[in-house]
Design brief:
Elements: E1 6-11, E2 31-32, E3 35-36, H1 37-47, E4 52-57, H2 61-68, E5 77-82, E6 102-107, E7 110-112, H3 116-125, E8 130-140, E9 144-148, E10 154-159, E11 162-175, H4 189-198, E12 204-208, E13 212-214, H5 218-230, H6 232-235
Parallel strand pairs: 1-4, 1-6, 4-5, 8-12
Antiparallel strand pairs: 2-3, 6-11, 7-13, 8-11, 9-10
């Protein structure tokens, strides 16, 4: 199983939420310490015995390809899936013709200490069709929240409450049969989830309690820079 571990990294987005940082560099090449975030992801996958990575690219594709090449620098096979137009999170998978029976898919802008090898193994050993790595994230509401009756009288009040949600980490394991439910063209993770729920296809959710941060927003990127410096050992 280890000899055929395949990962698909989604790196085709424009990084609009991370402007002005992404005006010059694509988001996956934004630095954390001495490494672009995508190189850190590649190193983590190698550590977990992945041997073949396909990077899906669109915006500033040549910069990403120039940096990573064919993966020889890291002793891993790297190739590319080019999007001539945005295809969403799941749409690019239809264009990769040599996917194995089970494979990892993840966003290329994630800082985490997830055990990718364990996540991969759990999916296969439990014969899952689709597995989502999930995280409990707290979100503070910066307002006083009013709870009203049907006739608009105050029933309860909370000052700047903190709500918790189970959110997708942008890391998934897929069985190849999932490709049957992904049409040609643009198709996002959200659309696939609605489709699988509608068809009553079981989707496993593994809740992760380690470190995870999506660097898609400026505040989160700055937080990731600080956290990487202070916790570097857990990521490398």
């Amino acid at each position: 199983m280890n000899s055929k571990k395949r990962a698909v990294i989604l790196a085709g987005g424009k990084g609009s939420r991370l402007k002005p940082y992404t005006v010059v560099l694509p988001k996956p090449l934004m630095p954390l310490g001495d490494y672009p975030i995508l190189e850190l992801v590649v190193r983590q996958l190698i550590k977990n015995n992945f041997t073949h990575i396909t990077i899906c690219v669109n915006h500033q594709a040549e910069l990403i390809k120039t940096f990573f090449g064919d993966g020889q620098k890291w002793s891993i096979k790297i190739d590319y899936c080019y999007e001539s137009e945005p295809l969403g999170t799941m749409g690019p998978l239809r264009n990769i013709k040599d996917l194995p029976d089970n494979f990892l898919v993840m966003n290329g802008d994630i800082l985490t200490d997830l055990d990718f090898g364990g996540f991969y193994k759990d999916h296969i050993e439990n014969n899952e069709t689709y597995t989502i790595s999930a995280f409990e994230r707290s979100q503070k509401v910066d307002f006083g929240v009013l709870n009203l009756s049907n006739d608009n009288y105050l029933l309860a009040f909370k000052e700047k409450p903190i709500n918790s949600y189970i959110v997708s980490m942008g890391i998934y394991m897929l069985n190849k049969k999932i490709l049957e439910y992904i049409p040609e063209g643009y198709f996002g993770f959200d659309l696939l989830m609605y489709e699988l729920l509608n068809l009553k296809i079981k989707v496993k959710v593994n809740i992760f309690d380690g470190y995870w941060l999506d660097i898609g927003r400026p505040d989160d990127y700055l937080q990731a820079i600080d956290d990487f410096e202070s916790k570097k050992d857990i990521f490398l």
